[in-house]
Amino acid sequence: MEEEILKIFDEKQNYIGESTREEVHRLGYWHETFHFWLISQEEDQYYLYFQLRSMIKKDYPNLLDITAAGHLLATESVADGVREVKEEIGIDIKMDELEELGVIPYSNTQKEVKDNEFAHVFLLNKNIHFDEFCLQKEEVAGIFKAKLKHFTELVNNKRESLKLIGYQFNQDGLKASSERIVTKSDFVPHDDQFYKKTISAIAAAIERNNTNI
Predict the structure, then answer these.
(1) How far is CA 156 from the centre of its chain?
(2) How far apart are CA 198 and CA 155, in angstroms?
(3) Most buried among 7, 156, 160, 193, by the most CB within 10 A?
(4) How many domains does the chain have?
(5) pLDDT per residue over 44-69, tens digit each?
(6) CATH code for the domain in which residue 121 is found
């Protein structure tokens, strides 16, 4: 399999060249990613959706993560990143449906992996039934939602756990409805500031949209 080539940047997001994905993570080069967050409104509550990473993933297996996300290749524009939504969770979304939340930088070092990302973050507010998701089993083992308010409290250390509702694949590879009580340790360890900035951007988008109704 041909190795992925990514654009690399300095800390001020100035383009400095290209490198392989392996070298980017080994040497800690800054690079671009595409983050897609799905929320839905049910009565007076907003829910935030998470994917459960596959057990066979090299990085962060069996942990909860952004609804859909991936690296932007050197040949891709930011808009091309929307392919990750279709590939990972099987939802056909167009860029003009998404609300841009900006670029959120973050750094995370785990063992040999030095991950320095400029994340292009996008939001979709839409009620999508769990039956509409078609997960890429090699990448995603399940899809869940939690109350946005409760996840915000978890990130801000105002609660120790929250309830997730959704489904995951069982040992036979079939969808099985699931309710789980999870803690911070069940999520990919993006740093708290990244989560806080993301939640703040989502909350601001919700407020803007409610004001414009």
Answers:
(1) 19
(2) 11
(3) 7
(4) 1
(5) 999 999 999 999 998 889 999 999 99
(6) 3.90.79.10
